[in-house]
Design brief:
The chain is an alpha+beta fold and 494 residues long. Helix content is 61%, strand content 11%.
Length: 494
């Protein structure tokens, strides 16, 4: 068979079958646990309300928290960047789709020329009877071209662009989840720091009252100077903790303003008033770990990137095969002699069958294919790693949530006991039964336990936020499994 007939057979076969070279994408299975280790304990928690994963922040029972998360989802600049990336990916998909279609353009020109008679050409033309130094050249053409995607390289390119677009949409949803969780986390941190400041300031007042009493006794000769200095030192220690907590509170308030897309200090006046640390709700779900993890947009991003890398193998393989294009021209042109456009004599037309085949470039093509396969292997490993880390996130969040709640409960009991012990020690000191050291030690123990309790409550609520984020809470997927190339289940969440 001659090369011409072989080429014709290859092209005809590709056009008739509509095949696309390269491997078809199949989403790989990723092992997930039957249940999370702490899931039973989390399900058995007692909470006043249950949280829907889609809007979990509303179930914390704090209107301010809900308002700030809502504002962040409307105004956050990270979300604005993510939305812009989706727009870019959508444009890339449009370009890949347009590459499959014919393209055309209209061109035209009108030229008015004045010929010199001093040049050799001008001298010859000037000797010609009837020569006119003025001339016109008018032309209008319509050009069209179409690359026939006989072996599917362009279709694989569009498949990759579609997967990239879906990954960008899922990435925007992942940013949305991160913004909601980070806003809630900062807000809870603010309330926790305020609670710790309240404990510290209360203890400052207690130490000041104690110092006043000792000074009174010292003035009457009933207390030694040592006791005065001990009380002053204890007061200084407690006071020293206040600026540190205030600095942390200022930083947290500024961070919240940035999350809301506003200047630091914008919402400070609203946050000054103390509020209770929000208590975590119950998780209202009966889904399996596999179903919960599949709703995580970062996993969808990794899976869509894997699909895109798989399609690009086909793009690279398609370079082995010839590329056929059709182009044509219809137009009208007149030159120096004059004449009218669009008359039968001025019409012009052309048709071109183009062929491009990288026959002697297979070494470079092989390298490109191997590169595409290496990228696909990298994306596969990244997808599997993302699934493992997703499970790790949930397990860690559950563990921190449960342990911190347990710690808070123990410390609450301890604070009650230490409070009674401090009252008893002070009464005994007034009667002369115990020394001032016992009172100061009781104050220090009570302060430490109270501060640790507020920290445990704060960390428990923050761990709950981390758990909701780890479970992919914060949006409602329309398609749990983003497998089909044409599905775009994320657009309504942007």
């Amino acid at each position: 068979m001659s090369p011409r007939y072989l080429l014709s057979a290859l092209i005809a076969g590709g056009l008739l079958t509509g095949c696309a070279v390269g491997p078809d994408y199949v989403r790989p299975d990723v092992a997930t646990p039957d249940h999370f280790r702490g899931q039973v304990e989390v399900d058995q928690r007692h909470a006043p309300v249950s949280a829907d994963l889609a809007t979990w922040w509303t179930a914390f029972g704090d209107p301010e928290l809900t308002r700030y998360v809502t504002l962040a989802l409307e105004q956050n600049l990270d979300l604005a960047q993510a939305s812009a990336r989706v727009t870019q990916a959508r444009a890339g998909l449009g370009a890949a789709t347009a590459a499959l279609l014919p393209s055309g353009n209209i061109s035209g020109q009108g030229v008015r020329a004045y010929q010199s008679v001093e040049t050799p050409l001008g001298q010859v033309l000037n000797a010609t009877p009837g020569f006119d130094r003025y001339g016109n050249n008018d032309e209008v053409d319509f050009n069209a071209s179409w690359e026939l995607d006989a072996f599917g390289g362009l279709r694989r390119g569009r498949e990759a662009a579609m997967a990239d677009y879906q990954a960008s949409e899922a990435g925007a949803v992942a940013t949305r989840l991160a913004v909601a969780a980070q806003t809630a986390d900062i807000y809870i941190t603010i309330r926790g720091l305020q609670a710790r400041l309240k404990v510290a300031r209360k203890q400052v007042q207690t130490e000041q009252d104690l110092l006043a009493t000792i000074n009174l006794l010292y003035g009457k000769g009933l207390a030694a100077e040592l006791q005065v200095r001990q009380a002053e030192g204890a007061l200084a220690q407690v006071k020293a903790s206040v600026p540190v907590l205030e600095a942390g509170l200022d930083a947290a308030m500024n961070a919240l303003d940035v999350m809301l897309g506003t200047q630091p200090g914008t919402h400070r006046a609203e946050l000054i008033e103390d509020r209770e640390i929000p208590r975590a709700p119950q998780i209202a779900t009966t889904e399996t770990p596999g179903e919960l993890l599949r709703r995580r947009p970062d996993l969808i991003v990794a899976e869509r990137r894997l699909a895109a890398s798989n399609a690009r193998i086909g793009v690279a393989i398609a370079e082995y095969y010839p590329k056929l294009s059709l182009s044509g021209l219809l137009g009208s042109a007149t030159s120096l002699g004059g004449g009218n456009l669009f008359t039968s004599g001025a019409n012009q037309a052309a048709g071109v069958l183009g062929l491009r085949w990288r026959l002697f470039d297979f070494g470079r093509i092989n390298a490109q294919i191997q590169q595409a396969k290496g990228q696909q292997a990298e994306m596969l490993a990244a997808y599997r790693l993302a699934a493992l880390r997703a499970t790790e996130d949930v397990e860690n969040a559950y563990s921190a949530w449960l342990k911190r709640e347990e710690q808070a409960a123990v410390l609450t009991h301890g604070v009650d006991s230490l409070g009674r012990a401090r009252t008893a020690s002070y009464a005994a000191y007034q009667k002369g039964v115990v020394s001032l050291i016992e009172v100061l030690q009781a104050d220090e123990s009570l302060l430490r336990a109270s501060d640790q309790r507020e920290q445990a409550r704060t960390e428990s609520a923050r761990a709950a936020v981390a758990a909701f984020k780890a479970l992919g809470g914060g949006w409602q997927p329309e398609q749990p499994k983003a497998v089909a190339v044409e599905q775009t289940p994320f657009a309504k969440q942007l």
